[in-house]
């Protein structure tokens, strides 16, 4: 899955950028734990699925 597609899904669910430093971008939403998205153009399918599951989207 492309990183930008994953970010679009997170932003559609109400997540916003909290920090943008290092090798990851951190997204947060009130009442939910922060989500880390690695900075790669293409994310492994298992990694993308785990991020979406942690965000409560899948």
What does this molecule look like?
Helices cover 34% and strands 26% of the residues. By secondary structure, the protein is of the alpha+beta class. The chain has one domain (3-54): Hypothetical protein (Metal Transport, Frataxin, Chain A, 2-Layer Sandwich), CATH 3.30.920.30. The longest helix is centred in the first third of the chain and has 10 residues, at 3-12. The radius of gyration is 10 Å and the shape is globular. The protein starts with a helix and ends with a helix.
Give structural attributes.
58 residues; 3-stranded antiparallel beta sheet; 26% strand
Write the layout of secondary structure elements.
Elements: H1 3-12, E1 16-21, E2 24-28, E3 35-38, H2 45-54
Antiparallel strand pairs: 1-2, 2-3
Residue-averaged pLDDT, rounded?
Answer: 95
Q: Structural class, judged by helices and strands? A: alpha+beta
Order of helices and strands, N to C? HEEEH
CATH-assigned homologous superfamily: Hypothetical protein
Radius of gyration of CA atoms, rounded to a whole number: 10 Å
Count of DSSP helices? 2
| Cα separation of the termini | 14 Å
Remind me, CATH topology?
Answer: Metal Transport, Frataxin, Chain A
- Total strands: the figure is 3
Strand order of the largest sheet: 1-2-3
What number of domains? 1
């Amino acid at each position: 899955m492309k990183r930008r597609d994953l970010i679009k899904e997170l932003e559609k669910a109400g997540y916003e950028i909290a920090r943008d430093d290092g090798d990851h971008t951190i997204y947060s939403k009130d009442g939910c734990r922060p989500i880390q998205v690695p900075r790669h153009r293409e994310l492994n399918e298992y990694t993308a699925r785990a991020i979406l599951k942690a965000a409560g989207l899948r």
